[in-house]
Amino acid sequence: MVRHPLRKRTRKQKLICDAVILLLCVPLLIAVLDFPIPTAELAFRSAEARHFFGRGEIVLDVNPDALGKDAQELYLNRAFVSRRGNWFAYAEVRRELLFWQPSGGLTALEHDPSKPLELLAAKLWAGRWLLVACDLPEAVSAEVTYPANDGGWHLNTRRETAAGQGCFFFALDEVWQNRYGPEEVRLRCYDAAGNLIYETPTPAVWSGEYGISQ
Fold first, then answer.
1. Which partner for 81 in 46, 60, 135, 159 could form a disulfide, CB atoms 3.0-4.6 Å apart?
2. By C-alpha distance, which of 138, 104, 110 is closest to 123?
3. Sequence-separated (6 or more) residues with CB below 8 Å from residue 33
4. Does residue 137 have a cis bond before it (omega within 30 degrees)?
5. Cα gap 154→156, rounded to integer Å
């Protein structure tokens, strides 16, 4: 019996249509189920999609393998920071055998453009870090000073020269107690020659609450 050519073409078209639908479902499965995700960056993009942040420009890739032994002990997972206008998004990702998954949620942070240097976020448990936004293109390094209590109140200063696009990431070697929030942190940034180009005011709580004199 000779098959009708139209029926044969219809079956072929159906197979092609099914294949196209399957391919279109892959990004949806990645975004909804977080699996399988072949790269760390795609896992971060999945977190952006799931939390309706939109696709931002990745400005920072925090890789603990490149931060040194001390930083690896403080920071557990890889992370990305993206930016859309004055909004930043931070999310951690982790490796699961051959694939990657978002680790936890996504944190959206709004930057005040009137502040050239601003503390955006702090994580003070598990991995201890600070994220600082910087709108000064000539800034190649930044410095954060905060009160720490390791054998008595004192000031601890961390300086970073590896900047993302418009932000700096600090892995902390001493715990910041964070009693009063950003108002107890001083930020500075420097140009390529090492000149101070901007600093936030010296916090009054250093001497008033902690009894620390400079």
1. 60
2. 104
3. none
4. no
5. 7
Q: Work out the pLDDT band at 6, boundaries 50, 70, 90.
A: very low
**Looking up tokens 């279109």, which residue turns up?**
24
Please indicate whether residue 148 or residue 30 has the higher confidence score (pLDDT): 148
Residue 53 vs residues 5, 147, 164: alpha-carbon distances, Å: 49, 34, 20
Does residue 203 contact residue 209 with C-beta atoms inside 8 Å?
no
> Domain residue spans in the chain?
35-110, 116-214
The residues, any chain, with a CB within 8 Å of residue 169's CB and separated by 6 or more, are 60, 62, 81, 129, 130, 131, 132, 160, 162
Alpha carbon distances (Å) from 34 to 16, 47, 134, 151, 194: 26, 8, 32, 44, 44
Is the CB of residue 212 less than 8 Å from the CB of residue 154? yes
Fold held by 116-214 = Immunoglobulin-like (2.60.40)
pLDDT tens column, 195-208: 999 999 999 888 88
Q: What are phi and psi of 82, to 5 degrees?
A: -120, 165
What's the pTM value of the predicted model, to 2 decimals? Answer: 0.73
Question: pLDDT, tens digit, for every residue of 37-59?
Answer: 889 999 999 999 999 998 999 99
